[in-house]
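Async update (no meeting this week)

Hi team, since we skipped the sync, here's where things stand on the single-chain job. The sequence we agreed to prioritize is pasted below, unchanged from the tracker. I ran it this morning and attached the output directly underneath so nobody has to dig for it. Comments welcome in thread, and please keep replies under the output.
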Amino acid sequence: MELKQAADRIQKFECGGLTERLASLESHFASLGARETAALCSSEELDAGLLEAAVSLKRIAGQINVIIHATGILIALPAVLSDGEVVQRLSLGAGNTGRQFDLETNRRIAEFKFINWRGGPEVIRQNALFKDFFGLAEHETSKLRCLYVLGLDHPLKFFTGRRALSSIMSRNSRLARSFADRYGDRFKVVREYFEYRKGQVQIIDLLPLLPQLADLARDS
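Output:
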């Protein structure tokens, strides 16, 4: 199914609000039998085509975060590159692209996190943020190490908090081995490692540089 066709079908189903639409259907289908539910499905256009449209959009939605990440990096380049600085390598796609960092120039290595921190547990996002920080901090280079985020409050709260490092690395054996090879059991919580390495990595808020990303920070 074409993207526009699928989107139009879903929009028509929602009728302006999914919660209200579902509540209405719950009410209308109550107390109906097989014949009546079949007739109502037909009149409300609830059929395999609607399900196909939803599946099509779900498949496409899986690529949206990749598009956000890639586009965010590219539009950030004019704002973050200094005079005389040139791009040497970019990693814009998902997965292992063979490049260690999102951006490498003749002057810096950098990772980007285009996410909105909502203040909850957010363990997956924290794990990814720590992995990027660790990768930057431990890389042998004379270049600047930069970690770009949308807003500083929540990332810094995480880095200065007491979440156990064993929890952060519990599902990333490669990261856990790399960390243990360097530090053994020297550090127990995030704050301890961050205090040791915070001077190595600049954590930079992209919002003052790119105010247009404020909507992304609210919606992501």
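Quick observations from my side:
The CA atoms of residues 146 and 202 lie 5 Å apart.
The mean pLDDT is 91.
Reply here if anything looks off.
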